[in-house]
Amino acid sequence: MKTILTIFHVIILSNVxxxxxxxIHVYVALCDNVHQGIIPVPEHLGNGKDPNGNLYWGAAYxxxxxxxxxxxxxxxxxxxxxNNPDILDKLLFKHxxxxxxxxxxxxxxxxIRTCTEDFLKAANGQxxxxxxxxxxxxxxxxxxDLLAYVGHDGLMDFDxxxxxxxNTVDSTDVIILACYSKSYxxxxxxxxxxxxxxxxxxxxxxxxxxxxxxxxxxILNESGSEIDExxxxxxxxxxxxxxxxxxxxxxxxx
Length: 254
Description:
The structure is a single chain. This protein has an eight-stranded mixed beta sheet, with helices on both faces. It has a two-stranded antiparallel ribbon with strand order 5-6. A hairpin with a 7-residue loop joins strand 2 and strand 3. The longest helix has 16 residues. It has seven helices and ten strands. The protein has one domain. With about 250 residues, it is α/β, with parallel strands linked by helices.
C-alpha cells in the first residue's frame, strides 16, 4: 500500500510541477507587395521571399523578432530545417515557465493560399506533424492544441476548396490575426469545426504583440472574452487607437 501511495504522489507532483505538454502552431504568411492584395509597404518589409526583413517575421514586431528579442517568456530552442519549399523559416520555441511548445513557420508570401489552406486543414485535425527535440516527439499541425494564422486575409482575394473531415474529438482552438478575419474565415472555421478564440472585425496590423498577449491568456486557460480583452488592451498600447476602437476590433466565438 505504501508503494502504491508513493507512486500516486509522484504522479500528482509531476502534474503539479511539470503539467501537461501543450502545443501551439503559428502559420505566418509573409507580407508580399507583389502577390497579395495589400496596400504596398516599404519594399524591404514587403518582400515575401525574405523572411528576415519581412514585416510579419523579421521586422521589429514580426513573429520571429518579437518572440526572440522582445519577450522573456519564450526561449528559442532551435531553427529547424524545412523540407517544404513554401516554408522559408521554421522555429521551435518553449515557454520558460510552462510546458508549452510553439512551432512558428514563415510561408513564402506568394504561397499565401497554401499557408491559409494548411492552417484550415490543421484546424480540422488534418495534416498532423511532429518535431523531434532532444528525445521528445512534439505534436503540431492537426494535433496541436492551439493554431494561429498571422498575415494578410487572403480569403479577400481567393477561395479555398478543402475537404473537411467530421471531427470526433474536441474542437481545436484557433486565433486568426488578419483583417476582417471573422467575416471571411467564419464559413471555413465552421466547416473545420474549430473554436475561434480570437479574430477580428475590421482592418488591423497583425503584429506579434497581439499574438503573444492572446497566447498568454490561452496558456492561463482564460475564457474567450478574457483573451479578447487582453488583445484589445495590448493592441491599444502599441497602436494608440483608443481602447473602444481596439475592443470593437477583436471578438471571440461565432
